[in-house]
Fold this sequence. Notes:
The complex is a heterodimer of chains A (about 130) and B (about 325).
Chain A: E1 7-11, H1 15-27, E2 31-35, H2 38-48, E3 52-56, H3 64-73, E4 82-86, H4 91-99, E5 104-107, E6 110-111, H5 112-127
Parallel strand pairs in A: 1-2, 1-3, 3-4, 4-5
Chain B: H1 2-53, H2 72-83, E1 86-87, H3 88-100, H4 103-110, H5 116-129, H6 135-141, H7 147-160, H8 166-173, H9 181-190, H10 196-202, H11 208-221, H12 227-232, H13 239-250, H14 261-269, H15 274-287, H16 294-303, H17 305-311
Amino acid sequence: MMSVAQRVLIAEDDPVTSRFLVSLFEEKGYEVLVAADGERAVEAAVTFQPDVIVSDLVMPYRDGYELLRMVRNDATLQSVPFVLLSMRDREEDIVRGFEQGADDYVIKPFNARELLSRVKKLLESRTH
Amino acid sequence: MQGILFGAIVGIASVFLALTIAIIAGKAWREIRDRRHRARRKVLEPIVLAYAHGSEASILPALGGGVAPSDRPVLEKILLDHAQRVSGIERARLAKVLDELGFVDVYRRGLHAAGWWTRAESAENLGLSGAVRVAPDLLAALEDDASEVRLRAARALGAIGADAAVAPLLRALSEPNRWSTIRIADILAGMGPRIVGELVAAYPTLNRPGRLATLDIVGRLRPLETAGWLVERTRDPEPDVRAIRAPRFAARSPIPHGRSGRWRRSRSARSETLRRSRTCARRCATANGGCARTPRTRSSRRADPASTRSSGCSTTPTCTQGIRPA
Lengths: 128, 326
């Protein structure tokens, strides 16, 4: 169990997936905030100052790429690990995600335990 | 006469009134039911998710030893909603709950329902249940009269990943009049590289559409051990087989017979059908690092302007990746 809860921002417009992710991360002791669209995710990222962002790719108002670009251009957020979570499994989408600065790309339907491990690894590499 | 007219007006008004009351009552009942379901979902969903993330053998103790009949549809919806969004252990545990609470048996019975929609939905839910023991039921559903039922049963078999499913799905590849070859190919490709052995073994027994689809699947799965087999396909008497094989092989290694990239691209793009032309152009672009120049562009523009539009980068100056000099 972590001494200070690390904060996870989930940008996901599908309520079922976001509830699953909340349950997954909260169960492991993370503090979780959900944003239901790209616009709210941008605001939440600035106010919540998450330790890691897990974002869907296709969302209303701003998509995951835009959110990622905004995060990477923000001085206080640019080092925050960013995981893209998407149903899009085409090579070009994955490459585009990494080229824009994503730290990881997870394809839906996702393996929950694998996602947890990836996020944990990213957080560890950030602290070291 | 006036009495008859009055009676008719009252009768019609009564019917409209009764219909209005029935509609309002139905809507009110649905809203009450949905509200109750939402409220119960808030209670039950955390229990289901805690079970999915945990390691308990059964969910029943967490549900108080059983499920009230009124909670069953709520639980079913929760389980199906989450089972289709995750994979791995969590998915397996959600599927186990579906089986434990008897939903799998309900779906099995649903495969024999009179309405095709119920049968199709049951087949889909059986796929989400992931229960390998239902594979024989789904295999039987592949012979259903309704194409939607057959397709969903095929998808379910692919999702379950039952080994017994591979042979009938391969047979389906050779029946383009009864099955959508593209969809069956997607299902087989989704089953992963473990089916490649069976694909290669079945290849000689398949008809032309089946062979082309098999090559497409093998190319998508890209198992290294099929490289030699793909080289063999370059000697196939069927031009389309040679054409479809070329970019598939090019994606993994240099061209085996010293053919130039130009030959490969133009060969593919000269393919006889519109669909093939478009597909080949796209594959060539992928195989050549997103760049394919004149042969493909020229022939595909002739066959189908859409393929030229979709190629996107035909004027990219560097075009060396994966191509041996002519």
